[in-house]
Amino acid sequence: MRREALILLAGAALAALPWAAGTYWVGLMTQALIFGAFALSLDILAGFTSLPSIGHAAFFGLAGYGAALAVTRWGIDPWAAAAIGILFSVLVALAFGPLAVRLRGLAFLTVTLAFAQVAWGLATRWTSFTGGENGIPSVTRPSLALLGWDLTGPSEFYWFTLFWVVLLTLLIHRFANSAVGMSLLGIRESDRRMAALGYNVQARRTIAFVLAAAAGAVVGVLSAYYNKFIGPGSLDWRLSAQMLLSVIIGGAGSLWGPFIAGTGLHVLKTNLIGETERWVMVLGILYVVTVVLIPKGLASLPRIVRAKLWRQQPKSPAEKKPPRPAAPIRIHSDYIMGDRSRSEEPALEARGISVHFGGLQALQRVDLKVMPGTRHGILGPNGAGKTTLFNVLTGFVKPSEGRVFVHGVDITALPTHKRVGLGLVRTLQITTLFPELTAMENVLIGTLVGVGHHRNLWRRARSDRQACQAALGLLHDLGLEYLAETKVAEIGYGEQRQLEIAVALAPRPRLLLLDEPTAGLSAAETRSVLELLQRLPQDLTLVIIEHDLEVVFEIADHLTVLHYGERIADGPSEVVRRDPVVREVYIGSR
Amino acid sequence: MDFRFWLFQVMNGLTTGALLFFVASGFTVVFGLMRILNLAHGGLFLLGGLVGWSVQQATGDFTLALLAGGLAAGALGLLLEQAFTRSLMGDPLNQVLLTLGIAFILNNGYLAIWGGTPRSLAPPQVFSASVSVLGVTYPSYRLFLIALSLAAGAALWLFWERSRLGAMIRACVDDRAMAAAMGIRVDLVFAGVFTVGAVLAGLAGVLGGPVVGTFIGLDFDVLLLAVVVIVVGGIGSLSGAFVGSMLVGLVDALAKASFPQVSYFTLFAPVILILLLRPQGLFGRESDQ
Question: Is residue B144 part of a domain?
């Protein structure tokens, strides 16, 4: 709320410019605001989602061309033409985005560059339609005759632009704080984790791509109307690069930083072009200096300054540790679903799973049957294929052979996030909690899925009462409430492993797959995790990978033993413990 | 007539492809080896051309110009390599912006030194005439370029596949950490490959002088074509760079001759398709990314 008020306040202050400055500055600021919002739109993609595009200008330019062509060639009303231009860009983004977001890093960069070059090539070479290098002149601006407003004057068009830029900024701000916006931050850190929590990663990347394109299209049309002209310059990859630079200078993902940098960079560039032939070099030096000196951008400066001034010491987690409850409490939250079906049908079943990695046979026709409400341990020495089996069960790896069923439903072809919808959730072996978020926010990302609010584009995720209560409830039940407001980066490793379990419970699993929950923990920390696991509701089915025998024997009532990708034993815990083959594998290899 | 027209276009395409191969071979191997998309690579090409032009103006000798152009670009390349490996490896976004910044600095620096007038080099005396190929009169210098790129391609291929040093470079492309663990001085390999790539780009700048000329802005034009070659040929693949260069040269020439309106489209649309369907490039292997 505070941020939104700030945006409105800044907008109101900027509205006063025409009374304070001459026509030159009003015009310059109109274009600068457009570029500020343009950089902001790219921040959704490059900063928030970590998809650096060097072809974002394509959507800016295509919308401008669409509108300009509609006005000049077909004589359509500028308002309708604006809609046509924006729609055109969005449709192109809808067609290209889902494919492009499958790529990462430099490959994504290259494909967006190639895409923008295609658009630029058409604009420059298809002279008869687009006017080629000369572009399209005399684009008529829309009129606000109904309000008695004339948009031909510089001040009037400045206010018009300011209105749309403020509106766009508010909308983007709103989106960034919604459940979907928050999930983009999560995807930036770890797409595996987000998929394991039930998020459709590719769909969300596509949403970011299309929304960024749509916002870019809006300012592209504004730019065409402001200049009463559109040319190939608006599609040039160097314009995209300038916007990327703005995102970096401003601080990727901070939203306000890129906006200010995009505005400032245009003002600087325009003045330099007037002053010196060397402005390209100044720009180049600016690129180099930014990347080398402030790779996290202006947005990181306040934090650095604050840290220097106050020399804040992070509170050590030990100080905050509350007394542990003497006797373990049973969890009675009904938030954790568990499996109340009590049928004879297995909750989870794998039939004849084989996995090859090239020549390596990681799993050979492995069968697994997990009955509802059991604690099922999967044992095996390193390299036995335990994690690969988990990866098959949760959809990270497609098996070469075999099928997987949850409550009799064949899920072999389902992507990870859909399996979460069926109640199948896993923890990851190496903790991939989001370090910059608090414990509470980490759990919140999961409870948003649990309460079904994870597709919301509008409501502030951090004020989602239902999801927040669920997250706090979970932390409370697991005795981790005291960590709620602590950033994960400041939480000790042992507590992170417990938090990991809290996060995995957040999407409301019926079946929880735990991948070595005590790996790397001290004896005391292992004890805490074991206690926590024993406090979980009985009807929640647990499958647990371990190579610490004591841990498994204490928890599991049923065991499956893997060795070199083959199942060598399966049965009730006390039977498998005495199995001579198992003893040999374990004692012989240790 | 029609046949001659197309033959002429094909030879033009092969000439462009030949020049492009000199530029793209260094570009793609550096990318494969160091994971650096060096957007300043076009600047190395242009430096070669401009220095070559100055030397030819002063001495009138093409061979000297070629040597000077290659050396100048090589020296700048070594400097850039030291700067890149020292400042950042890893984050692709920052890396690309850094190399782009350097590309802008070079571009404007050249403008300050050589001015904005487009210039062109005279081909060496031996190749000043034209010859007739299947009834098409064609400059012998361009035929020389095509032959030279074939020879250079063969030499590079032999070095790459057969020499000990070539094997070490391939090992570094495949798995840098493993190669280092095996005792290969990865830092020296980086510096050497980057410098040789820069020399090749500089040579191409001089060699292209009589065909495309040298002018400010050519650096970015060449850079974009080299990006296309990388995508088509696959990252870090020398044979891919050769085939990719020839394909790009041919497609560009034939499209310009037949559909000038969409000529740029025909160059970049395949790039999008290849990246989406076969991200490792036509000649790259599965493991390349």
Answer: no
CB contact (8 A) between residue A280 and residue B279: no
Say if the Cβ atoms of A125 and B91 lie within 8 Å: no
User: If you write DSSP's letter for every residue of A25-51 in order, what string do you get?
Assistant: HHHHHHHHHHHHHHHHHHIIIIIIS--
Q: Rounded to 5 degrees, what are φ and ψ at A149?
A: -110, 140
Contact criterion met (CB below 8 Å) for A374 and A540: no
Q: Do B268 and A125 touch (CB under 8 A)?
A: no
Just give the CATH number of A348-433+510-589.
3.40.50.300
Which residues make Cβ contacts (< 8 Å) with residue B259, sequence separation at least 6? B266
CB contact under 8 A, B94 and A295: yes
CB A100 to CB B230 under 8 A?
no
- In sequence order, the β-bridge partners of residue B136 are B133
Bridge partners (DSSP) listed for residue A515 = A545
**Minimal CA separation from B105 to chain A, in Å:** 4
Which chain A residues are within 8 Å of B112, Cβ to Cβ? 277-278, 281
Best B251, B274, B275 member to test A by mutation, with max A CBs in 10 Å, is B275
- Please classify residue A114 by burial: count the beta carbons closer than 10 Å to its beta carbon, then call 0-12 exposed, 13-18 middle and 19+ buried: buried
Closest C-alpha to B45, from B214, B210, B190: B214
pLDDT tens sequence across A190-246: 888 999 999 999 999 999 999 999 999 999 999 999 999 999 999 999 899 999 989
Q: What is the pLDDT of residue A587?
A: 65
Q: Judge: B105–A281 Cβ closer than 8 Å, yes or no.
A: yes
CATH 3.40.50.300 boundaries in chain A: 348-433+510-589
The shortest C-alpha distance from A45 to chain B (Å) reads: 12
Say yes or no to pLDDT of A257 above 50: yes
Chain B residues touching A117 at Cβ < 8 A: 224, 264, 267-268
3-state secondary structure of A382: coil
In a domain, B54, yes or no: yes
Distance CA A356, CA A365 (A): 11
- Residue A493: name the closest of A483, A485, A507, A504 by CA: A483
ipTM reported for the complex surpasses 0.90: no
Cβ of A99 under 8 Å from any chain B Cβ? yes
- What mean pLDDT do residues A576-584 have? 83
Contact between A254 and A47 (Cβ < 8 Å): yes
CA distance A81 to chain B (A): 25
Q: CA B115, CA B103: separation in Å to the nearest integer?
A: 17
Is B158 part of any domain? yes
* Whole-number Å distance between alpha carbons of B84 and B78: 10
Nearest to A113 by CA among B232, B114, B271: B271
In a domain, B136, yes or no: no
Left if phi > 0, otherwise alpha if psi is -120 to 50, otherwise beta: which for B111? alpha
Give ∠ CA B279-B282-B284 in degrees, rounded to 5.
70
Side chain identity at residue A15, one-letter code: A
Residues of A in contact with B96 (CB under 8 A): 52, 54, 106, 109, 244
Number of domains chain B is built from: 1
The tokens for A212 are 């960024």
Contact yes or no for A118 and B92 at CB 8 A: no
Separation CA B182–CA B176 (nearest Å): 10
- Distance in angstroms (rounded) separating the CA atoms of residues A520 and A27: 62
Contact A513, A419 (CB under 8 A): no
pLDDT, tens digit, 9 for 90 and up, residues B191-231: 999 999 999 999 999 999 999 899 998 999 999 999 888 88
Interatomic CA distance for residues A460 and A52, integer angstroms:
26
Could you tell me the residue range of the domain that residue B59 belongs to?
13-117+151-288
